Here is the input.
Amino acid sequence: TVGTLLGRILYGQGGNALPFFVPMLLSLIHIYSPLELTEEKNRRLSHLLVIVSTLYVAIAVFASLTGVSWMLDFMHQRSFFIVIAFAGAVLLRRWWLLAALTAAAFLLFFQYPALTYVLVAAGGILIALMIRVRRPTALVITAAGIAAIFVILSAGSAGVDVTTTSARYFSQVGKSDNTRARNELLMLGEQRISQSPVLGSGFIDDLTVTAPPGYVDPYIVVPVHNDYVQFAIGGGLIGGGLLACVLGLLVTRGVRVARATRVQGRQASSQLATILTAAIFSLALIAFFNPILIDLQNALCLAIFYDILAAINISSPIPRGPDIDVVVKSPTTG
Here is the structure.
């Protein structure tokens, strides 16, 4: 936060990470004034998140069909709201809403067939499986899911030619292929990281790069379409690594809370934790392909999700070994 403030005030760096760090100060609220959440409050929060996210989906559909320019931000870069709406509809058993959301999701995808939609859908399913199935199976699913993500992300850097595959995909769905531009931006981002690989610029400088003509015309100075690379530009490998670790710890905490409260019979708390965890995991996935965390609104959402998740108390320890149903016997039954 200090570095970004210095960059803005003293050096006029208007494209640094200040929009991320300022909302993150809100994540400290639970330390000084923790939220007091009851089962009833958690139930209401789940319903509120579903209502707000469903409203987002409605606005996204309207923007997609009408092409209203100022509404186009309600598209795939904030598709974590779609995950919240879907998770809430399933957990709260609102089947009519699930049907409507499914139709809306297909419409959004066919209007703008971004792979982001596919990734967040897969991420939401992965989180649901991690939380709902028994622990040994959940560990296998987690390992397989993480391995698949690393394989996909490292394919390009490992020398695998994915250009032909991506071109075939874009050709089939009728979407312009921007793989060449994204690769160029990532290469420029890596060049900036190499200038100060450990600590970066201390988040003082802008996190943007200057693209050569012909890549992102009519724009010249643009963000790298990867938040982890952008954080590595600002804070070096330490900064990028810390971002990945923080998001990973949040997801781990969310899975742990959701599973523990489910075993304790606290259905509302488990549902809320599942919804929040799916949202945070979706944000972490989208950040690989879109610069969403260096955005005040998205960063504010992340801070709010964290504050609520941190306030859900695990009142009793998680049982070791496979999940079991808790049976309470009366004294008369022995």
User: Anything to note?
Assistant: Residues 156-175, 317-334 have pLDDT under 50 and may be disordered. The first strand starts at residue 208 and ends at 210. Residues 227-263 form the longest helix (37 residues). The beta strands are 208-210, 221-223.
